[in-house]
UniProtKB/TrEMBL annotation:
Superkingdom field: Bacteria
Any single GO CC term annotated in Swiss-Prot or TrEMBL for this entry: plasma membrane
Name of the molecule in the record: UPF0314 protein
Regions crossing the membrane: 59-76
Any matching Pfam family: DUF2585
Alphabetical UniProt keywords: Cell membrane, Membrane, Transmembrane, Transmembrane helix
Amino acid sequence: MKTETASFRLVVCTLMVILQMLALRAAGQPWFCRCGSGAVWSGNVVSSHNSQHLLDPYALTHVLHGVALAGLLWLLRGCCTPAWRFALASLLEAAWEILENSPIVIERFRTATISRDYYGDSVINSIGDLGACMAGFLLAERLGLKRSLLLFAIVELLLLFWIRDCLTLNVVMLLSPVEAIRDWQATGLH
Ligand SMILES: [Zn+2]
């Protein structure tokens, strides 16, 4: 990666983190988990610590956001350099994180998915998700199409076995909830 490209990406990352931080604080989200432990990782997705620490299993779905965005924005390669595609992906992810923490989407998650106790992300978790997405984008750039598709499939399967949830189910359950899936998810997590 050229130095100017690397510094451009760094500036973009910093700007997005600031934008997201301001938007989430304005929406009333807390900086950290209310438990106050300061732990970087939270592994239990049905606990109140989920989406509150820097990283949790759902960070992996955000890595896949990055992989998917790298693939979609690659279609713009004729008019858009890799650095600008990275900037666009970061902007889209930051916008999603802000939308995800709006009252209407939080309510949707609570009623339609297994995230019954979901009150939105803490600021630190949301920044972790943005970082995971950017890492996924950079990873996909290096892996190329075939290996990125393989990575996508492996991570989705891993998440299905691990937490009975994944990016695909996330999207399905958010748009058109299936009761049988929700029951299956709920019974396996206790
Ligand atoms: Zn906690």
